[in-house]
Specification:
Elements (H helix, E strand, L loop, with lengths): L9 E10 L2 E6 L2 E7 L2 H4 L9 E5 L2 E5 L5 E2 L4 E2 L3 E7 L7 H14 L2 E7 L7 H9 L3 E4 L5 H11 L3 E6 L5 H8 L10 E2 L4 E2 L7 E4 L5 E4 L16 H4 L27 H7 L5 H15 L8
Parallel strand pairs: 3-5, 8-9, 8-11, 9-10, 11-15
Antiparallel strand pairs: 1-2, 1-4, 2-3, 4-5, 6-7, 12-13, 14-15
Helix pairs in contact: 2-8
Length: 297
């Protein structure tokens, strides 16, 4: 990434990387490094990757309004959050995946599931579960260039982030989509059954085909609560397959976990809602019930 010194009075751009108090910003005048005004710290604001900013005199002076924001890793203004899930090594963890999909829904970020290692394991269950609820599901086969082309088209003109279990192949897929990126990849640990954490911080990469992509640390690096906290009363709204069904529950304050007359439970029983998704919802609801009020502030 070429860095140039910009001496203009004021220029607008997008933050590509934040590291050690230095911000790499892409603008029409080029790519350059700068610091941020100290006033942001006093306001409890910190510039993040994906932010649209104004740089004056070599210092970030304004941060544009964000349409969404992930707490950790700090990422702003995402159009889509792409979950890389492998069929094996590591095997899919539906609960963790559903937690992150719920956060994407909560933030107004379009979730997408991309399945890797389809030559090593069966991907049908993943396709059935997430395809049935209207989430875009794609499969990657590195021997079939058309599957890589489909990912390139998915990313074109958008700000996206790849995330998923370590070892699922995020960096490998990014390098296949755009070989000029040369993102380091890690071997799978046979002892742990997961990959080494090759990504240490969030960074936006500009793609040759258009758009930006962020590679992020793997799921196992952080607790999902650090991405954001969803109250139990808001959780049902983060499961798109519940939409329109919850209105038919007998009780207005139905938790959709065990009540008689719960329309969601009836839909699960009828096969209209995937059972494994409802199991994830119930587990997340129980976790949300344990949250203390100070954690929600």
């Amino acid at each position: 990434m070429a860095v140039v010194v910009v001496n203009t009075t004021s220029v607008s751009g997008i933050i590509l990387k934040c590291l050690g108090g230095l911000y790499t910003v892409e603008s029409p005048d080029g790519i350059f490094e700068c610091k941020a005004r100290g006033i942001f710290r006093s306001k409890g604001i910190s510039p993040s990757v994906g932010d649209r900013v104004t740089v004056s005199g070599g210092v970030i002076s304004e941060i544009g309004e964000r349409k969404n924001y992930l707490i950790r890793p700090p990422l702003a203004n995402l159009d889509q959050l792409i979950f890389i899930v492998s069929t094996v090594s590591p095997s899919p963890n539906y609960l963790i995946l559903d937690k992150f999909i719920a956060i994407a829904e909560y933030k107004g970020i379009e979730p997408v599931v991309i399945i890797t290692k389809t030559d090593l394991g069966d991907s049908s269950a993943l396709r059935e579960v997430y395809g049935a609820i209207g989430i875009k599901v794609m499969e990657v086969d590195y021997s079939d260039e058309s599957s890589i082309d489909a990912v390139r088209e998915l990313l074109r003109g958008k700000i996206s982030a790849f995330t998923g279990n370590s070892g699922a192949g995020k960096s490998t897929l990014l390098n296949a989509v755009d070989p000029t990126l040369n993102i380091p990849t890690g071997e799978i640990s046979k002892k742990l059954g997961r990959g080494r954490h090759t990504t240490r911080h969030a960074e936006l990469y500009k793609l040759n085909g258009g758009g930006y992509i962020a590679d992020t640390p793997g799921f196992s690096t952080f607790e999902t609560a650090r991405y954001d906290i969803i109250r139990k009363e808001e959780l049902a709204g983060c499961f798109r397959e519940f939409e329109g069904i919850t209105d038919n529950c007998r009780f207005r304050d139905c938790s959709h976990t065990c009540e008689k007359g719960c329309a969601v439970l009836e839909a699960v029983e009828a096969g209209e809602i995937p059972k494994i998704r409802h199991e994830s919802y119930c587990a997340m609801y129980e976790e949300a019930k344990q949250l203390k009020e100070w954690e929600l502030k």
